[in-house]
Amino acid sequence: MFHTYEQAVDWIHARLRLGIKPGLTRMEWMLERLEHPERRIKTIHVGGTNGKGSTVTFLRSILESAGYLVGTFTSPYFEQFNERISVNGQPISDDDLIQLVNVIKPLADELDQTELGGPTEFEVITIMSIYYFAKISPVDVVIYEVGLGGRFDSTNVIHPLLSIITSIGLDHTAILGDTYEKIAFEKAGIIKNAVSIITGVKQPEALEVIRRKADIGKSPIYQLGEQFSTNSKSSLKDGEQFTFTSMFTQYEKLEISMIGSHQVDNASLAVMASQILAYYYSFIIEESHLREGLKKAYWPGRLEVLSEKPFVLIDGAHNEEGITALASEVKSRYADKKISILFAALTDKKLDRMIDILEDTADSLTFTTFDFPRAAKAEELMEAGKAADNMTIANDYKFYLEQKIKELKENEILLVTGSLYFLSEAKPLLTQLLKINK
Asked: In this structure, are residues 263 and 253 in contact, taking their beta carbons and an 8 Å threshold?
């Protein structure tokens, strides 16, 4: 039995030693022992390469504005471990986390002794969330974010009201495959028979895979650019504005407070999802709820402006597609500014192309590392970037940030980007430094 929060979290993190073990057998074994709590909750499943967290947030915020109690399961955590399991955006309490670990640990111990092997960290957290929403804190609906892939992801034991695939990108290629078709096949694994699928995927070859899976299962498909669309898009100082059109209705001048044209796509997926919930599942969602929910939706680390004087921006772009979207937005919004970028990444990413894009965007590009098992060394990043003239190394990112914030000029922006694990470490320090230097 665990009695403290620290003991509970340490035990969860210790499961990281088991790595990634794709497959649903261990999840199904634990659910059977817990008397199938997944059957007691209404769920929505969100997969994809980029945009999952933002889409979950937009949809949660819309449902919240409509008066629903909404659970979410997301990863990785950004500021606090507990936020991976939240209700209406509020992380579960430390006491609830301890209770959940004490329920799941005996099952994990038993599994450790079987031929199936013990559950991974992500499997443990997933099963904790299912038990929590079914037995401890029931909610109206839970939005589940896929961890990796989809077909063999531990979240794929749910049978959702609807599924969403946000995008397809060449990420985690060693596990999911090295083509858009192969990755789309894994992502499409969350599509269930006769369950609506909404997608923002744009590559024709990936879309064909998703359509084929939907056709086989007679799953209605709603594709961005076909069954619903966005237009009249414009950038606002603190967000975006757009018009949404579907077979159901049209909403003009919708506003979001997240920056970036890619966030318009994510928001449109959430709007389409809310319409399906309203038309086919009797959710009461008015236009006012939708507008309010979109406007107030906030997800940390996504083109987030921490300060305008000095100008400090953070973004968790951690793959080529994310970096491309970030670079496009920075170039269009801040063309008159000098851009200084601090970048850290994990070793399992395709670094060379990401760094090429950043090098083309930045006036100065600084590589760093951080305390994480898979973090790339600054020297590795420099080597991947072929040591261009505007590139430097800062092995101690904390010292770099302390000095850089003091020196930032009025026409300069500091952009801290890369791994979300890195941003979760750096943001508290940045917040503290910005307060000191006000």
From this structure: no
Taking CB atoms within 8 Å and a gap of at least 24, the contacts of 393-397 are: 393/366, 393/367, 393/368, 394/342, 394/366, 394/367, 394/368, 395/368, 395/369, 396/368, 397/342, 397/344, 397/368, 397/369, 397/370, 397/426
- The CATH architecture annotation of domain 304-436 reads Alpha-Beta Complex (3.90)
| 141 contacts 59 by C-beta, under 8 angstroms | no
- C-alpha–C-alpha distance, residues 136 and 228, integer Å: 38
Location of each CATH 3.40.1190.10 domain in the chain: 5-296
316-367 pLDDT per residue, tens:
988 888 999 999 999 989 989 999 999 999 987 778 889 999 999 999 999 9
Fold of 5-296: UDP-N-acetylmuramoyl-L-alanine:D-glutamate ligase (3.40.1190)
Burial degree of 335 (CB within 10 A; 0-12, 13-18, 19+): exposed
Give strand ranges (E) for 9-137.
43-47, 70-73, 85-87, 90-91
What is the number of other CB atoms lying within 10 angstroms of the CB of residue 186? 23
Task: Express each pLDDT in 217-268 by its tens digit.
Answer: 999 999 999 999 999 999 998 899 999 999 999 999 999 999 999 999 999 9
3-state SS class at 128: helix
pTM of the model as a whole: 0.93
Residues 362, 340 contacting (CB under 8 angstroms): yes
In the chain, residues under CATH classification 3.90.190.20 are 304-436
> In angstroms, rounded to a whole number, what is the distance separating the alpha carbons of residues 400 and 98?
37
Among the residues of 391-438, which ranges form H helices?
Answer: 397-407, 420-436
Short-list 230, 311, 234, 303, CA closest to 272: 230
Judge contact between 202 and 175, C-beta under 8 A.
no
- 124-157 per-position pLDDT tens digit: 999 999 999 999 999 999 999 999 899 999 999 9
Q: For residue 273, what is the DSSP state?
A: H
> Strand, helix or coil at 322?
helix
